[in-house]
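Posted in: Structural Biology > Protein-Ligand Complexes

Title: Requesting predicted complex, 2-hydroxyethylsulfonic acid in pocket

I'd be grateful if someone could produce the 3D structure tokens for the following input. Sequence and ligand are given below.
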Amino acid sequence: MVLRRAVVTGASSGIGEATVRLLRERGWEVLGVARRAERLAALAEETGAEVLAADLTVAADVAALRERVEAWGPITTLVNNAGGAKGSDRVEDGDVDEWRWMYEINVIALQQVTAALLPSLRAGAREAGHADVLNLTSTAGYFPYAGGGGYNAAKFAARAVTGALRLELGGEPIRVVEVAPGMVRTEEFSLTRFDGDRDRADAVYEGVEHPLLAEDVAEAIVHAVELPGHVSNDLLIVKPVAQAAIHQVHRDGLRVKD
Ligand code: 8X3
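-- Reply #1 --
Done. Output follows.
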């Protein structure tokens, strides 16, 4: 039996949770990591995934993750999904705590977790022939927008780390894959960004025919890591069709031209 064992961060909701579910459906062994133990326990119960409650911005928790994975055995795939946005202030009004949090979770945690788990990924690559580090970035890492400065900066940085890692791992059978979603309607992304303001969160997706769902992005993630081991799908930009570009969102339905 070929080893297929993944660690997925940010597993308690949204894209991470959907990825855990899909990988489990497809027969993978999965360890889901997130801060919220109760949600993880429910996910473990439903899917049979292993889970670990950890705050990946805390060094001791990253060390605990490393120990847990080393005890679990070699892994073939790391999905660095934990991340998020807080606030939509203009640069001149940016809240330093929000900006620091975004850099911590989208960049530093990604680096810390990757460094901690690379020995287990190398062990997995020895066994399975290849391994993957898959990082969730964002279209916000490609195109800045007004009110996006802090999040844009963090996701541009996450892209840079991903590119550097691919070069550094050159010559090893380890794929470094970037998945950059555009507008995804998850239960929490915009609510977190707007500090629980449901109306502002809903307005982001208003009128958009079929915004992406977490499950759509999970499909793209699982596709990339299930490709034959010699195929590196370096970058997947995933948007709803209604979002022709980050600045061009069609909110009045999709129609075939007469
Ligand atoms: C989410 C995409 O456009 O809300 O990563 O910044 S956007």
